[in-house]
Amino acid sequence: MSDPLARDLIGYGEHPPHPQWPGNARVAVNFVMNYEEGSENSFLDGDGRSEGSSAEALQSPVPKGERDLAMEGMFEFGSRVGFWRIMRLFEKRNINMTIFACALALERHPPAAAAIKEAGHDICCHGWRWIEHFKLTREQEREHIQLAIQSLQKTMGERPYGWYCRYGPSVNTRALLMEEGGFLYDSDCYNDELPYWVLQDGEPRLVVPYSLVTNDSKFNRGMFATADDYFTFLRDQFDMLYEEGETQPKMMSCGLHMRTIGHPARAIGLARFLDYIQSHDRVWIARRIDIAEHWRKTFPYKPGMEQIAKVGS
């Protein structure tokens, strides 16, 4: 006899719920701008190392233990230039997005914080700093969560209601978020195309899954080389979801990084994709908080709704 496997390998299965997106949309599309620049690993923040890679330099040639000024500059491009280019693309088309905000990074750029607030984009907390939470102790992680909330409250005038770690959470993250309270959802999962409920310490938690599939980070790994590569990949993902959405609507998450897609030769691919999806009628371009609130209203938690499958016997 094996122990039950504490994973859900089944999910909604063959017959997922119809999400009833507003406007009878076939696809809900959420764009996420990851605001990380200024909170990455840095000698100036006492980390003893510089962040090690970007789309322009997949591996730093600077010896370990030395400050990488070139890499710092590549990150600075994101907050100095890339941020404003992405903001203009969305403003021109009257589209809102979600900001995965590392609290310290946004705290260090008041003009960006003000522009985000004025534009009406929502904030999902991306940690206090852009570091891996699975490397933190439980007490360190608790402190980082509290610091992030306090910082964003001060910078934005409102606490964050969503949460997403760098890459992936620790085994303690969701429990600590529940302990802290105030979060309506987290996005620390890549396993579905619809929101779903789970139980954490006996309490319901809404998960709004994220994706690294339609994410500009693939420029970093050499999977995208040109704006056409990026546009074609996102278009194909959208087209398949739009076709399926006649009977089974889903959501599509598109991750953006200021230091990556913010360069002109890449940003033009994003512009093409924004125009492409706006040429379709049954599309709901939504902030992540809008998706979370829609799901909570349309599918409020009821006992037995949680996705915790006991696989094994």
Would you kindly provide a brief summary of this structure?
The chain is α/β, with parallel strands linked by helices. The chain has helices spanning 69-92, 103-107, 110-119, 138-156, 173-180, 227-244, 264-278, 288-298; strands spanning 27-35, 98-101, 122-125, 162-163, 185-186, 196-200, 203-207, 250-257, 283-285.
The strand count comes to 9
Which second-level CATH architecture applies? Alpha-Beta Barrel
Largest sheet: 7 strands, parallel
Overall average residue pLDDT: 94
Low-confidence segments: 309-313
Assigned CATH superfamily: Glycoside hydrolase/deacetylase
Helix- and strand-based class?
A: alpha/beta
Spell out the helices and strands N to C.
EHEHHEHEHEEEHEHEH
Work out the count of structural domains: 1
Cα separation of the termini: 6 Å
Cα-based radius of gyration, to the nearest Å: 19 Å
What is the helical fraction, as a range of percent? 25-40%
CATH topology: TIM Barrel
Note the overall shape: globular
Number of helices: 8
Q: What do you see in this structure?
A:
The protein is of the alpha/beta class and 313 residues long. The protein has helices at residues 69-92, 103-107, 110-119, 138-156, 173-180, 227-244, 264-278, 288-298, and strands at residues 27-35, 98-101, 122-125, 162-163, 185-186, 196-200, 203-207, 250-257, 283-285. Strands 1, 2, 3, 4, 5, 8 and 9 form a seven-stranded parallel β-sheet that branches. It has a two-stranded antiparallel sheet with strand order 6-7. Strand 6 and strand 7 form a beta hairpin. Helix 1 packs parallel to helix 3 (110-119) and helix 4 (138-156) packs across helix 5. It is globular, with a radius of gyration of 19 Å.
